[in-house]
Design a protein that fits this description.
This protein has three helices and eight strands. The chain is an alpha/beta fold and about 130 residues long.
């Protein structure tokens, strides 16, 4: 079996808010249909959003609607990414104990539909560091 594409699909009660948030955060664009939006980044389809009017956001951490999956978004400037995400409507769920540390840092957020995601910063993997 050859996998041609792997897309993360989020259920959302407000497709414009959800797809617009992720498109802006990832510097992408939205391709909208009635009950489905796609986010395209650098010419590639990266995320899908399916209309789910009865969507109940997960409660993080723990709760009656616990998260099933989340995204880790690795960035080079955590402070800049934080300001951008918050300006786009994210909610900070858990700040890093010391975001200025030089090690790996994870901060947990919720997107407009309440899906948890992390903004992460840390040393580049050797394969990426070698290419820079």
């Amino acid at each position: 079996m050859r996998v041609h594409r792997l897309i993360h699909v989020f259920d959302a009660p407000d497709l414009a808010a959800e797809s617009g948030f992720w498109a802006a955060l990832l510097d992408g664009t939205v391709e909208a249909e009635d009950d489905w939006h796609s986010v395209v980044v650098d010419g590639e389809w990266r995320m899908g959003f399916q209309l789910a009017p009865d969507h109940v956001p997960p409660v993080w951490p723990g709760g009656p609607q616990q998260q099933q999956i989340h995204l880790d978004v690795w960035v080079d400037d955590l402070a800049e990414a934080h300001e951008r995400a918050m300006g786009l409507g994210a909610r900070l769920l858990q700040a890093a104990p010391d975001p200025a540390t030089t090690g790996e840092v994870f901060q947990v957020y919720a997107d407009p539909a309440g899906h948890p995601f992390c903004l992460c910063r840390g040393p580049l993997p050797a394969s990426e560091a070698a290419g820079s």
